[in-house]
Specification:
- This protein has three domains: about 45 residues, no CATH class; about 240 residues, Aspartate Aminotransferase, domain 2 (3-Layer(aba) Sandwich); about 140 residues, Aspartate Aminotransferase, domain 1.
- Helix content is about 35%, strand content about 15%.
- The strands form five sheets. The protein has an eight-stranded mixed sheet, sandwiched between helices. A three-stranded antiparallel sheet has the order 11-10-15, with no helix packed on it. Strands 14-16-18 form a three-stranded antiparallel sheet.
- A hairpin with a 5-residue loop joins strand 1 and strand 2.
- The N and C termini lie far apart (about 70 Å).
């Protein structure tokens, strides 16, 4: 024992042997993790629901002992970047989706950036995406599905969506096709798969890349096959509202070894070397590679860069949470499906004033949210309904950016380009009439696994009260 600077007494570990220190470390770790498990049990104890006072959230983290124990266990190791938990989660995700590779990143938005950027790689020869190439997509969605296209000099081609599925209208694919079209990138809106049969066929017939933004749809099925397994690349998000969470985080799913190498390079600074962080010369050729670019022959391969990449890795502490969350993913999906059905059945009689959501044909969605659109002839507006629900302590959300072309980020960009005599950074094919309708009249509610029947029926009752004029708008 010895006195510390603040006068307290601590054990003198310097006098211990290596074996004694290791044993004491194990004892302390076990004690700490047991206390953490107790804290988790305390935090996850059920709480009473008080209608009108307790907030009914659109989403929340669902976690318990495994997540908190893993997180602290990882913190005690103090491996601050990608390590064993990171590798374990990548393997678990690949196995869960039945694909050969999954590469973790620090967000779903980064996953979209890596997916698009990877298709600009010289590795793809004539198929690589180049500035000016066009990518078919929709404007009714989240901005970071589209932003990486513009950031890479590509031209998004916007087409309308259709109701009641809130996904791309497949009839607009052919009119959107041009000699410059090279890819299609679409999200499965609120977990509802877009028409993968039509989209995959269109891409195959025209030799186009398909990127699935699967961030809202983990566990959704189309013809019995998991979404996220149809595209050349697919992306996932683990932000807290999503189907599983690591706090911040995401992943890119890859079907081939070559695609995996490009994605990994783009994620890891653009380097050509595949050694993991903290490892050197795993190939045995670090200083005797053939010449790359105009570098000297045998230049250190660990500092040879094939792409203009990024550093977007997930930390080991985040990955440790994901290792527990993925074990819950099937159960989370079942709860989301059940909660969606409770709401859908409870609101079925309001179809005269609300457009109620429907799953895409041949699909079984793992729903992210419950989307509603107020009909044009309804005796109330979306804004009146939303104000009533928020006043009743029920969280609501818009369909993300509404019409992305109307967002200030896009209008400012358009104005700047036009002032410089440059063309608009996008094309629109047809009207975006339905997109605009959803922007002005649509909203969605949560169906996350932590919701009770009492909360779901309270939401349905408050929607009905507003829809039937039982409360002042």
């Amino acid at each position: 024992m010895h006195n510390t600077q603040d006068g307290s007494v601590s054990e003198d570990y310097s006098a211990m042997t290596w074996r004694e220190r290791r044993q004491r470390e194990k004892e302390l770790r076990a004690e700490i993790l047991e206390r953490v498990a107790e804290m988790a049990r305390l935090k996850s104890a059920p709480k009473d629901f008080d209608p009108g006072r307790t907030m009914v959230r659109y989403a929340a983290r669902i976690f318990g002992e495994p997540e908190m124990v893993n997180l602290v266990d990882s913190a005690l190791e103090f491996w601050l970047t990608a390590g064993r938990w990171h590798n374990r989660l990548e393997k678990a995700l690949a196995a869960w989706y039945g694909l050969p590779h999954a590469r973790l990143v620090n967000s779903g938005s980064s996953a979209n950036l890596i997916a698009i950027s990877s298709l600009t790689s010289p590795a793809w020869g004539d198929r690589r995406l180049r500035p000016g190439d066009e990518v078919i997509t929709v404007a009714a969605g989240f901005p970071t599905t589209v932003a990486p296209m513009i950031q890479n000099g590509l031209v998004p081609v916007f087409v309308d969506i259709e109701l009641p599925h809130y996904n791309i209208d497949p009839a607009m694919l052919e009119p959107a096709l041009s000699p410059k079209t090279r890819a299609v990138m679409l999200a499965h809106t609120l977990g509802n798969p877009f028409d993968l049969g039509a989209v995959v066929d269109f891409c195959q017939r025209n030799g186009l890349w398909l990127i699935e933004d699967n961030c809202d749809a983990s566990g959704s099925l189309y013809n019995g096959q998991l979404t996220g397994t149809f595209g050349d690349l697919s992306t996932l998000s683990f932000y807290p509202p999503h189907h599983m969470t690591t706090g911040e985080g995401g992943a890119v799913l890859c079907k081939t070894d070559e695609m995996n190498r490009v994605v990994e390079s783009m994620r890891d600074w653009g380097r050509d070397c595949w050694c993991p962080s903290g490892a050197d010369n795993t190939c045995g050729l670090r200083f005797c590679q053939e010449q790359h670019g105009d570098l000297p022959k045998g230049y250190d391969h660990k500092y040879t860069y094939r792409h203009l990449g990024y550093n977007l890795k997930m930390t080991d502490m985040q990955a440790s949470i994901g290792c527990a969350q993925i074990e819950r993913l099937e159960g989370f999906g079942a709860a989301r499906r059940r909660n969606w059905k409770v709401l859908r059945d409870a609101l079925d009689d309001l179809s005269d004033v609300l457009i109620l959501p429907e799953p895409t044909k041949n699909s079984d969605p793992s729903w992210f949210g419950f989307m509603l659109t107020v009909r044009p002839d309804a005796p109330f507006t979306r804004d009146q309904m939303v104000r009533h629900l928020e006043g009743a302590r029920i969280q609501t959300r818009m369909l993300f950016g509404g019409n992305l072309l109307r967002q200030p980020a896009m209008t400012d960009l358009i104005a700047d380009r036009r002032a410089q005599g440059m063309p608009d950074p996008y094309r629109v094919v047809g009207s975006l009439e339905v997109t605009d309708m959803v922007m002005t009249s649509g909203f969605w509610l949560g169906v996350y696994p932590g919701m009770s029947d009492e909360q779901l029926l309270y939401m349905a009752n408050q929607i009905r009260r507003c829809a039937r004029g039982e409360v002042s708008p």
